[in-house]
Amino acid sequence: MHNNFYFLRQLSQHLRQNWLGFRIGEILSQAKDELVIKVYKANEEKTIKAHLSPSFCCLSFPEQFNRTRRNSIDLFQQIKDYEIIDVVQIEQDRSFYFQFNDEFQLLFKMHGNRSNVILFHKEKIVEVFKNNLKQDFSIKIKELNKHISLDKIAFQNAGGDYKKLIPTFGKSFDLYFELRKYMSLDIVEQYKCLLTLLEYLRDPKFLIHFDESGLPILSLYEISSEDHKFQNPNDVLTSFYKSYISTFRLEKEKSILRNSLNNQIKKGGSYIRKSSERLEKLLSTTNHRNIGDLIMANLHIIPPYTGEVELTDFYSQKLIKIQLKPTLSPQLNAEKYYRKAKNQQIEIDTLKKNIERKELHITELRLEGDNLNQITQLRQLVKKGKSKPQQIERPYHLVNFLEYEILIGKNAVKNERLTFHIAKKEDLFLHAKDTPGSHVIVKRKSNQNIPKKVIEKAASFAAFFSKNKSVALCRVLYTPKKYVRKAKGAPAGTVKVDREKVILVKPMNFK
Fold this sequence. Notes:
By secondary structure, the protein is of the alpha+beta class. It contains 11 helices and 23 strands. A hairpin with a 2-residue loop joins strand 1 (23-31) and strand 2 (34-41). It is extended and about 110 Å long.
């Protein structure tokens, strides 16, 4: 729904009411498939971010956006400082454009995996954001408008098929019609139902619905009483983007982990199969020790320096052929088979041990795979009211001091989660020097240095929640979190720190 024509029509109307008179400040990209446009008017600034990944395309309007020093590039510089004089919705298409002076238009084409942003000048394409979409170079902006006949005759000719009559509906309104038992209505009532919806869509609600898997769905009509309501299309779109991206990233990480686990299970199964075949072969062949015993028991009948001999097996009472090395005596041939027997037994024991170890590992991997669903299950419990978000235990203690948030990790595992999943790169990391203890994070405010008193207070907490809590004065290191990295192969919570500074403080509990 977030790229449906009827939602984009509301969005473009809202932009037309609130963005006219603003000028283009920056248009840049600092991530693949992502374009950021900053506009300004007097002392007011606004931002629109176009996320145009083939797997997910969406617009959002972040309140703040900070450009990185690296990996950013300026685009569409022809319209820098140009004023937005109109916002035009393409009729019956998932596109709209900003109109500027001198006949410039910046088109937002929100066509799913073929979404793009295109600059026109006098109806000719000047610049295209995603150059790999070759068909976009032939777009005629005036030809994007479509006309749809919505009279009763056209409806009857379509046999009441609203998708055939209005292709821009897509799948977005299937549930709407299903809830109203559209298919069981006669043609007259169906037409009334359609007209009612079209009239409603002139001034719809803006809601976010969460499905059973926890994924957000932007909707223009209420799906359940638990849907989250918003005042305008900008707010609902921005909230939807944040919710979807966080869920999408989680699902993507789970998918990567699941694929990795499945690959390991597959490789482990292949190893077990091949090892079992080898083990079966070793166990089914005549034991080298038995052959050695046969040779030693029949030394008196084995001719010296012969290449082959037939002897009766002790166990099967059948004649078996035994290969001998002609240059060795029977005794030395027996010793040779005893050495082989020893190596054979070592290989058998090793194969059995490795197969058992691999089977145990596969069981552990399968358990890990089952545990990947725990977060989704928790999300479902929250949705159903069986649990509340605030009841979920945080991995840290929170202390507010001089309007700064100080976060103190509760244990080794939670330290790691705090530092590498919650803290931002510009936050301050503190830890008691050269001794085990809690990770402490001070949340940095935008473009502000953390006061010395706040650092001292946070350091006193880091000292208290360490092995040195009983000393009079404790050395505590601190550095921006971006200089903290996880120690490869080390236990949870163990880190390596660069560019550290050290402060001497008295250990102090926050309670």
